Amino acid sequence: xxxxxxxxxxxxxxxxxxxxxxxxxxxxxxxxxxxxxxxxxxxxxxxxxxxxxxxxxxxxxxxxxxxxxxxxxxxxxxxxxxxxxxxxxxxxxxxxxxxxxxxxxxxxxxxxxxxxxxxxxxxxxxxxxxxxxxxxxxxxxxxxxxxxxxxxxxxxxxxxxxxxxxxxxxxxxxxxxxxxxxxxxxxxxxxxxxxxxxxxxxxxxxxxxx
Length: 210
Hints:
The mean pLDDT is 95. Strands 1-2-3-4-5-6-7-8 form an 8-stranded parallel beta barrel, surrounded by 5 helices. It starts with 7 loop residues before the first strand and ends with a helix. The protein has 210 residues and is of the alpha/beta class. The protein is built from 8 helices and 8 strands, in the order βαβαβαβαβαβαββαα. It is globular and about 40 Å long.
């Protein structure tokens, strides 16, 4: 099993930012202590995705943080990213694993059955949720904290809580053996992404999440 630090998993959202503003915020998040970074761009061309991924990868390599590409195995391979993340409507995990080789393959799971299936197909970690409604441009189905707990206990790979989480509402995760949290808006839309990341890590420690 790969050694992954998924404690603070930052998922990007470039909506409303110029590329320079976006890259500035990404670097601020890396400075703030992000341990894993997923580039998620739903509405760009393949060439634009590759160009942005190359720029982001240079930043993540500078801070020695693995870069995960959302959905697009082709883009991940094109830029030699460290991994890819596939959702329930994306490429099946076993196919992504075959194409990605020994690189990181993450998967979304909203039920224990989905979690077990993803693990058996070769997933290295899971994103579990959504815990709360989100403002990102992705469809969200809420997942109860009881289900999150059950998933954490059902599979031996890291499971991260995702969905509308911020430093003020993370207390619902107390006592659940998650490996980390995924954050989008709490970092991306923060006045200071570096400070926001530090606050998320501190709050998680206070709650005993790790």
